[in-house]
């Protein structure tokens, strides 16, 4: 191309001038409501490409546009475009419910429950109202940037070491050797379980069973319907520091430096994983793999079936207190006051989060954020993508924070 043929591009200032001139011509010209002249299906299809903020403005233009902007399929596309607002179903739900979750608007068989993590549809006869769903989730997201109201549950007579909750209850384990059930709405204690002879250090439950571990070096499997003991597991030679389970295995770790794998149905000891040189403080089980965190400063990834260590994750400068694993990402907290995010498949450290001034004792994460609790008496919320601390809950505790759990609408600490 010769010099004479070289195109001349307008400068930024010229672009702005051209845009202003074009806008003035449009304003002076005849007003045509093109959207209203289109078939309903075409008009609403166009609105599929409008974001939530502007879709709200569209509703103010006219009655016709307001009608278009309320279309359920339009709001469904807005919701699904927000990848962090996933709809997922718990593993124990039947396949019919899972299918309804994959095609909720088409099947018309799910309703929204905001306390189920990213949001889990529950069987219902009402179709999802995607517009309401979007506004509810937007409001919940905004709550993460402010300090939420707090309630205190009073009943244990000593330190609370572990906590888990679902849509209706909170379960806590304490140094007072008891496990307490609390109504999530009234905050009243509904049941107290006794069985361990020393501190209850860890617990996990689902709809059917609960597994708890104690300083007395034993594990108890409880029936969630009757609140009675199903089994008392002996095998560790020191305190049981963490437990987890799925539909095949119970995995426990101990101050005795070992990890033990038990059959969830027969309660038989299947294998003992050895490799850590210090107390194993935390374990997380996901689809046949276990991640462990130890006082020796190491994170290890294990194959449950073979009992072999797949990979070591090296980087923390002091012992580890907590770890979480979702199959792809590992997040660990340490006595070096940092949180590290790891890529499970490669062992690569993706990010180091700094901000706590003492041991990071507990953490929980989803694809959007990490919530951590520390011996510095604080709970912090971190952006999973940027690693920035977005919320610091420095009030509410006068002592160490031992455990923390969260959903899209609340933090329990």
UniProtKB/TrEMBL annotation:
| Repeat (WD) residue spans along the chain | 153-192, 193-232, 233-272, 273-312, 313-352, 353-392
Enumerate the PROSITE patterns for this protein. Answer: FBOX (PS50181), WD_REPEATS_1 (PS00678), WD_REPEATS_2 (PS50082), WD_REPEATS_REGION (PS50294)
Location of the F-box domain: 32-78
* Keyword annotations from UniProtKB, A to Z: Repeat, WD repeat
Domain of life assignment: Eukaryota
Pfam families per the record? Answer: F-box-like, WD40
Q: What is this protein called?
A: F-box domain-containing protein
State the organism of origin. Mortierella alpina (Oleaginous fungus)
């Amino acid at each position: 191309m010769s010099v004479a043929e070289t195109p001349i591009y307008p400068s930024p200032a010229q672009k702005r001038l051209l845009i202003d001139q074009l806008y003035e011509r449009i304003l002076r010209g005849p007003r045509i409501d093109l959207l209203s002249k289109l078939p309903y299906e075409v008009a609403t299809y166009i609105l599929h490409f409008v974001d939530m903020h502007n879709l709200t403005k569209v509703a103010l233009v006219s009655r016709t546009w307001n009608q278009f902007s309320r279309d359920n399929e339009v709001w469904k596309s807005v919701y699904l475009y927000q990848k962090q607002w996933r709809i997922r179903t718990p593993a124990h739900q039947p396949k019919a419910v899972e299918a309804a979750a994959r095609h909720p608007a088409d099947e018309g068989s799910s309703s929204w429950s905001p306390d189920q993590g990213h949001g889990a549809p529950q069987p219902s006869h009402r179709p999802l109202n995607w517009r309401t769903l979007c506004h509810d989730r937007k409001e919940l997201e905004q709550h993460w940037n402010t300090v939420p109201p707090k309630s205190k549950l009073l009943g244990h007579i000593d330190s609370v070491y572990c906590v888990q909750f679902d849509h209706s209850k909170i379960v806590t384990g304490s140094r007072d050797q008891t496990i307490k059930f609390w109504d999530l709405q009234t905050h009243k204690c509904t049941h107290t379980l006794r069985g361990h002879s020393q501190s209850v250090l860890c617990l996990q439950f689902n709809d059917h069973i609960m597994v708890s571990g104690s300083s007395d070096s034993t594990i108890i499997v409880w029936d969630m319907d009757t609140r009675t003991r199903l089994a008392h597991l002996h095998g560790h030679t020191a305190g049981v520091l963490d437990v987890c389970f799925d539909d095949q295995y119970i995995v426990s770790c101990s101050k005795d430096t070992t990890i033990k794998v038990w059959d969830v149905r027969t309660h038989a000891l299947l294998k003992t994983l050895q490799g850590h040189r210090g107390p194993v403080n935390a374990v997380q089980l996901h689809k046949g793999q276990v991640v462990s965190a130890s006082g020796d400063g190491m994170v290890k990834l294990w194959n449950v079936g073979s009992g072999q260590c797949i990979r070591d994750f090296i980087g923390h400068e002091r012992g580890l207190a907590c770890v979480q694993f979702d199959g792809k990402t590992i997040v660990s907290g340490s006595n070096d006051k940092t949180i590290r995010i790891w890529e499970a498949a490669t062992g690569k450290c993706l990010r180091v989060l700094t901000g706590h001034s003492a041991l990071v004792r507990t953490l929980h994460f989803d694809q959007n954020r990490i919530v951590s609790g520390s011996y510095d008496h604080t709970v912090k919320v971190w952006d999973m993508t940027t690693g920035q601390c977005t919320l610091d809950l420095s009030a509410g505790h006068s002592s160490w924070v031992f455990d923390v759990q969260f959903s899209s609408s609340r933090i329990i600490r």
